[in-house]
Amino acid sequence: MKIDKNLILRLEKLARLELSESERSGMISDLKNILDMVEKLKEVDTMGIAPLIYLNEDANQLREDEVKNELSNEEALKNAPDRDGEFFIVPKVIPRVKK
Amino acid sequence: MIPKYSTYKAFLSDFQQGVISCEELVDYYLSQIEKSKNLNIYIEVLEEEALEQARALDNRAADDKKGCLFGMVISIKDVLCYKGHTVTGGSKILEGFESLFSATAVERLLAEDAIIIGRVNCDEFAMGSTTENSAYGASRNAIDDSKVPGGSSGGSAVAVQADTCLASIGSDTGGSVRQPAAFCGLVGLKPTYGRISRHGLLAYGSSFDQIGPICNSVEDAALLLEVMSGKDEFDATMYQGSSFTFDEKNWNKKAKIAYFPATLDDERVDAEVRKAAYDFLEQLKDGGHELVPSEFDLLDYLVPTYYVMTTAEASTNLSRYDGIRYGYRREDVHTLDECYKKSRTEGFGEEVKRRILLGTFVLSSGFYDAYYSKAQKVRRLLSDKMKEIFAACDFIFMPTSPIVAWDLGEKVDDPVAMYLADIYTVTANMVGIPAISLPAATHSNGMPIGMQLMADKFEEEALLAFSKLLME
Question: Residue B113: CB partners within 8 Å, gap ≥ 6?
Fold first, then answer.
């Protein structure tokens, strides 16, 4: 497994993060160390073992599909960094087409 | 330091005899908070509110209908939502965020007349073992302020240790309640997965996270678990069986306790911690309990499995912090993508970014099977192993941490060394079983040593009753 700048750049893009050059080289060595530790898992024989996905052994809990515990528009927008009273405001998604 | 009250019962008895009022108790804790400012325990002290709550309770002193936590002064780790209050998760990215509802656990404490005295510090989004990774600065151990208090619920542990409240509510994803309890000489309980609702707890690793109390006594841990546990329509992973009640009389037999000699003799264990562990086992034997030395060959795979799975879950959970609906947003950006990227980059701290990127890596195409899927299978093997042990034994014994509280700054630059310190605590979270850390000894450097007992799923009553017996 090659841990290099390209891999870090790809992960940054996927995670919507942006590292500085020095953070990036720190991340390369951290990731190498962590993956060395994680590589150990290959020693464990897991042939025929089913992955453990749910810790809770109870059957699925279903409920009626009712509308309840609603937030008002005002409450939902309360913590938004930018809003106009009715909507969240975000930077422009579709750029203006130049004529 | 010797706390004013080491159990809720002791306070209640004084209260009933008119020795102290709720308001006087809150005043005392507020003065303790003032005295321990150098330890950086609280992100926010709810001074006026706590006093108001206390006065309201004092006015109801003659009332027949009092909650079972009447006047119990509690602090909450700042990953728990409390309606109308800020919650930061120790992160800059939640700056100014105000909860629209209370966590189910917090709501239940209030419904039983507990007093919430403040929000305490923690590692950012509960990621860390020292409470140094907080946007609000590092917390310090009250025994020696050059030492860490442990983490991630370090603020909770020091809050109790410095006697600024009777108990504190933390969260435990890989040891975050038990390890700081051990580092500060306290009792810390991680309940069974599904015992306490996670509704209103800022999510880190959703299949690992569990809320738990840190306090001076086993009986208070049991009391708080009784109050906080039980079904909740907001958490679909809740246990649907009967609710938890505690009666120590339900435990009246000699215990059979499994332990792993290989884990105690491991070179990474501090010699004095090892000695304390063997002393603890000796005491159990003297008490007539049966010790069962057992094989455990998965020890070296625990921490790697844990980190693969929790970072994967964290990278997913933390994608919600995007600067759009709440939290920190970088202004003066021109595209939506730039807004996400800059807001997250400036809002998250270094350790959180490290774990998000690692989680993104283990979940990315081409690596999923090699890492994430592999880790899920090792998790199954571990779960099977524990089932096998609990078929024959009541409890499993391990130290809580291989080492005692270390110096501030000591391990910050070496994430792997820090992660390995979690070796004894992650098992309980990987399998979903309950575990408790009990104060057991003191290291020659003055720092407390904690010992840990684990029980089978939903066996908290036996675990707590047996722990109480041992503490006596």
Answer: B57, B66, B67, B68, B69, B70, B71, B72
Q: With an 8 Å Cβ cutoff, are B305 and A41 in contact?
A: yes
pLDDT digits (tens, 9 = 90+) for B396-409: 999 999 999 999 99
Q: How many CB atoms lie within 10 A of CB A60?
A: 7
Residue A56 confidence (pLDDT) above 90:
no
Domain range summary for chain A, segments of one domain joined by +: 5-42
Q: Which residue of B has its CA nearest to A18?
A: B345
CB-based contact A41 B380, cutoff 8 Å:
no
Query: CATH number for the A5-42 domain, one of 3.90.75, 1.20.1270, 1.10.10, 1.10.20?
Result: 1.10.20
B194·A19 Cβ contact <8 A: no
Task: Report d(CA B341, CA B346) in Å as an integer.
Answer: 9
Angle, vertex CA B393, rays to CA B390 and CA B394, nearest 5? 90
Tell how many helices (H) and how many strands (E) occur in chain A: 3, 0
Residues of B serving a catalytic function are 77, 152, 176
Decide if pLDDT at B293 tops 80: yes
CB-count burial class (<10 Å; 0-12, 13-18, 19+) for B265: exposed
Q: What is the pTM of this model?
A: 0.96
Q: Is A82 on the interface with B (CB under 8 A)?
A: yes
Q: How many Å is the maximal CA-CA distance in chain A?
A: 63
Encoded amino acid at B308, one letter: V
